What does this fold into?
Amino acid sequence: HGYIEKLGFTPEIDVFVGTGLVDMYSKCGCLNSAISVFELMKVKNVLTWTSMATGLALNGRGNETRNLLNRMVESGIKPNELTFTSLLSAYRHIGLVQEGLELFQSMKTRFGVTPVIQHYGCIVDLLGKAGRLQEAYEFVLAMPIKPDAILLRSLCNACSIYGETVMGEEVGKALLEMEQKEKKVSGSESEDYVALSNLLASKEKWVEVEKLRKEMKERRIRTRPGYSFV
It folds into this structure.
């Protein structure tokens, strides 16, 4: 910060420098310094507000983000898709489930931002990590847009962690079917096969496990070193 000022850049005036400092201090855990720079800035853009709101969430003050978003709108700057992606990711990272759900609900009704797949994915991951698997599953079913592989993989992984084999098997099969339709092989796909195989093995469905192995061979999909394939 001091070096930047020696170079002649003043965060109070330069929006890019100021925003960078807000982001840096927030990620370093120096929230008070981030707030000081933010409040001193005479010009703020959408990234400035987003960085400050995300910093509050990441540093245990997520309950203050709503007021900050209101201030943002009052200043004439509207939050955008990136704002909500950043905030929801922060909530997901520290497990603020209720705050994340409320923020998601307010996106369109209060701020006029239509959720996209990244926002839906954050909510599914947030619920999954909290063990609220049925809620996450119903959320996916109610989505107005088609879930992608990343979203389904997140739910499948949560099912594995919490031992929800029935739901995990259903989601895992849907994930593999989606990847097969896209006709492309990725490193993640081999992990998906392993995850589903382990779920099936835990239920002693050996015939289906063998079927997955055969399918992998036919598609020339290899498991990565360090992964178990029961």
Residues 143-220 form one domain. The CA atoms of residues 190 and 223 lie 5 Å apart. Confidence is low (pLDDT under 50) at residues 226-230.
